[in-house]
Design brief:
Shape: globular
Number of helices: 13
Structural class: mainly alpha
Strand content: under 5%
Number of domains: 1
Amino acid sequence: MEKIFKSYAFNILMILLFTVAALYLTIRDFVSEILTLLQSIRMEWLMVVIATALLYHVIIAIILTQLTRMSNPAYKYRQGFVNVLIAAFFHGITPSATGGQFAQIYVFNKQKVSLSDAASVLWLDFIVYQSTMVATVLFLILLRFGYFFDQHSPFFIFVLFGFLINATIIFGLWGLARLPRLHNWVFSRGIDIGIKLRLVKDREKSVAFMEEQVDRFQIEKAKISNHKPLIFKIVLLNIARLLFYYFLPFVAIKSLGIPLLEGFGWLDVMALAAFVSMINAFIPIPGASGGTEATFILMFTSILGYINASATMIIWRMSNFYLIMLIGSITFVIYRYYHRTK
């Protein structure tokens, strides 16, 4: 455990290096203009930016607590909030956010939640969140993707690709669980094709892994049917969670007093924020550092202009990533110290 935690120091260094490199390459010619714009920030709106970023994680903590109480009724909201903050830290410092669930299992264990219950909570959270996210982003794509793709940049095709990958994951699981023919094809013909394309190395291990995931999905799907009022509540909370996340750049824009280009509004900002998240999910660098900054500037230049988009990105990134990383790291250090001394 100690070696694993210490190894993340290298990932933190990578985050800083890629961020600095991205900022240097994207804003080096406009540093003075961007700094001048940042100095004009409205403090009352900056507080709203920070509150919005924190509220996003508060909603996740409520979701996690509600799901955990299905098997552990005594689980408290403060425990869920600690779990979420520590998970956010490890999501941020591991490639493709792979360390977050490992950290959550660790925290759940310290909170006296069994491994099976913890795995069930994380699986159910993934299913509901992924389904809600795909539906929400699809709505935004139908509203605004065509315009941005036609008028501004073919780069937006990567947004569509990212969305299709996310949609395939959740619809694929639903299909494997409900359609016997699809299930049989994937476990026979589909894996054989993967071996021929050298995407799959060990057939037996791949089949065993897929069977385990489908079995777990079946179990959690049954829970959804048996707890419909709670799941409906979790869906609504996930919608609120996503809306806060996608709305954060608009609040950052307001904090700088930046006007949107004519013909654009808050819905366009939310759509672009969703498009950025679709691309960033596939950047394997810890925290998607470098790629996140560049993608945000490239996307938002279309409605803000380059300098305004760069300044907005700094406020947005500082509030929803670095601030949360700092809070999460402090929470983790205090939490570990508490349990060591205890």
